[in-house]
Design brief:
With 92 residues, the chain is mainly α. Helix content is 67%, strand content 0%. Helix 1 runs antiparallel to helix 3 and helix 2 crosses helix 3. It is globular and about 45 Å long. It starts with a helix and ends with a helix.
């Protein structure tokens, strides 16, 4: 792969991640439903970790449902981290 093609791929990836970030609720819901369907096929029900007052190693924002918990504590942070790392590494 040449450098110009690599740059185009990076720009496309960043655009896709930013698009996902702006339409987070809809995209997350679709991915969550797919994950739940897959999990139920192997007899696993959705759940969320318990919420404690002081958490050091992971985010711990309270949520009403497992879907909200994963959207708030994982999906949002993952997208922010991925975009920040791409900006730091590539700067386009």
């Amino acid at each position: 792969m040449d450098l110009l093609k690599a740059k185009e791929e990076i720009v496309l990836l960043k655009a896709a991640l930013r698009g996902m970030q702006t339409d987070l609720n809809t995209r997350h819901h679709a991915l969550y439903e797919e994950a739940v369907t897959l999990a139920r096929s192997v007899s696993v029900e959705p759940s969320m970790p318990r919420i404690i007052q002081r958490q050091v190693y992971r985010n711990n924002a309270p949520a009403q449902t497992p879907e909200d918990y994963y959207r708030i504590n994982l999906t949002t942070d993952f997208l922010n981290h991925a975009l920040m790392q791409q900006d730091n590494r590539f700067g386009y």
